[in-house]
Write a structure and sequence with these properties.
disordered N terminus; four-stranded antiparallel beta sheet; alpha+beta
């Protein structure tokens, strides 16, 4: 999947009017990648950035099978599967965030809370999005 067509880099200040547009584009981009790999995307997602950190919070991320496994004492297995899925998505996630922010992703961290059906991705960029 090519993300170069998502959008050009947005304004570089999280206090700019363009910050909301960038946040929405980041959330949409991550959800699209998630949906393409997992077969369904989260039903709710939001993104925000501060300095050189981008956070994407996703709710209702689990597939019906993952929910069933989690309810039957398989939460550790679901978290392991989600970790592997995140690793498989990482090149596309990096590309999308880099394209949208105009910055290089140095690291991507993430986790899933099976009980809360919530996942988070944290991207650490080489420079603040709010560059002077």
């Amino acid at each position: 999947m090519t993300h170069g067509a998502l959008c050009p880099p947005y304004p570089r200040s999280d206090s700019d009017a363009g910050a909301g547009t960038l946040n929405a584009a980041l959330a949409r981009g991550v959800v699209r990648i998630h949906r393409n790999l997992v077969g369904r995307g989260p039903t709710k997602a939001q993104a925000f950035f501060r300095g050189n950190i981008v956070v994407v919070l996703m709710r209702e991320v689990l597939t019906p099978m993952e929910r069933t496994l989690g309810e039957n004492n398989g939460a550790d297995g679901v978290r392991d599967m989600r970790e592997r899925a995140r690793e498989a998505m990482l090149p596309e996630l990096r590309e999308a965030v880099q394209t949208l922010t105009g910055r290089t992703v140095q690291a991507c961290l993430g986790d899933t809370d099976v009980e809360a059906d919530t996942a988070v991705l944290v991207f650490i960029l080489d420079e603040p999005v709010a560059a002077s």
